[in-house]
Design brief:
Shape: globular
Oligomer: single chain
Radius of gyration: 28 Å
Number of strands: 25
Strand content: 15-25%
Distance between the termini: 53 Å
Structural class: alpha+beta
Number of domains: 4
Amino acid sequence: MPDLYYESILDVVEEGLVVIDMSGKIKTYNRRAKEITGILLSHSKPHESGQLEKGDLVIIADNRLGYDDGGLTAGDLNKIGIDDKDIAQGEAFVAIGLYDTPSIKGVHKNWRNRAGNDRLIFQTQFDNRLIEVEIDIVKKTIDIKVDGDSCKLRYSLAIGHMVVYSHSHKEVKFYQARGYSIRNETVAELLEGKPFKAKGNYEETIDVIDMPIGKVFDSPTLLSRIETCIAGENDYFINEYYEIHKRPTVCSLMPLKGNRDVLLKLIDVSNIEALITERNRLIVTMEKTNKSLDVSADSKTDWISDGIIGYSSAMQRIKYLAQRAAMTKSTVLITGESGTGKTFIAREIHNLMFKSTDHPFISVNCTAIPQNLFESELFGYNKGAFTGAEKSGKSGFFELAENGTLFLDEIGELPLEMQVKLLHVLQSKIFYKVGATTPTSVNVRIIAATNKDLAEEIQKKNFREDLYYRINGFPIEIPPLRKRKSDLFPLINNAVEKLTKDFDGSRKLLSGEALDLLLQYDWPGNIRELENTIELAYNMSDGAWIREEDLNLPIKPRAAMNLREHLDFVEREYILEKLDEDQYDVKKVIQSLNISKSVFYEKIKKHKIILNRQHES
């Protein structure tokens, strides 16, 4: 009885709680932890346990054959009437057919080259049903619709998604869901005839007690931290982000008194866009450049930088545009307030375009060059070109950037006479050094940036209209941090991680009051101000905590919030951000948030958000 009483208390706790003993085996695993990690599921289309039977309608959508689908092969598709040995490992495909019914051929489509495709779409009529499948490469979702009934699943690297309709009742018999690995419900296994478990109202629990934690979780990084802790090293942590079975999760790991057991606390934050996986950018980039992918690897490859930090819809768009810009030769114009990271985005585009260090990235701050030196600095000069010139002459920035990228930061400060000469270089690909009579050819990718409104500068006669159209071949606008506060969590976490490395691993944590203060502030200096503020606080704080008094910010803190209140704050900011982006068109906002209408209005009520009634219908 005491054990049952203890378990019943744990099952009503809102956080997931897992106790792991010193041998790495699970001693406690409450109901919420099972829900977060996919052991227990709730769904609007519940189904009983069973297995595939003759005549069942099977729809498979796989973004990468052979990866995270149980080792599926093209030959396995024979079981649903598809015989196509040309579907190669690693290819995306959709396959539809009747199980174990060789007299009826299935239909399929595969994509050998996905470069340039953001969404892979297939639609057909089969078995008197309208079947629509969409694999969204950017958002990392696979959506299978049968007569308009949607079953969508998010993925990180790769996934084999499957929906089955019963041959007898024509109702959903099985749908794929996160946590399928622990339930042994991969596509390959089910096509082999293995049984599947019930979901929703028919849910059958899986007994994980005494099971090694490594058989339940699919996050090697988190598992490594757990192993370190149970080995006796004090590598405990609070509120760090991990992805478990495709679901973003805030995790805390702490020791239990009296023995070597550890407690892992899990909080599901999958509804907050700020925590959607950073891997999306990495995978999209690899696909667009036809790079191979080892999905078993948990580490990033060495050919790409740590990337653009931020998970708001605005920053997802910036990441996507940066990837597309790297695939073109057009001149890129990056706009945004000071401190938003324009130089970083420019360098990221350069790194994505040129995969080796043989191609230079030359950054020029146009505000730092005296007006009378612009020409000689940009184009260089020959020996004896003017009084005081170096005897051997000098190469200009254009020449130094040959076969690479020339980044012209704050191009809005360029004098008008230099704007004319820059336009000539962009059009003709040649320039004249100061004092030269013969031209110099140039092969340079131009990326420009400014915090000014160039359209307004054109009206003021401060910027040439023809130059504006020449440099605006691929525009990227970076929103200020105050308009994407859902990015604050990963930005703060990244800043703290950098400082931890700089301080030889001396880890400091933000108190709730300090984090609250950071979230309240509007950051007029954007990311640069945020990083400087955290660095100053890191240096000013004593001990292992950064407190609100260590932050030199001109606002008063609210009452301290716990983690759930912080997450609610970010969720509210994100909803307001989406409402602003879609001009309070509720239908568009609901669609972009990917939630139901009822859930949307629950959140509106919860966060006391006032809607524009004109768009509520």
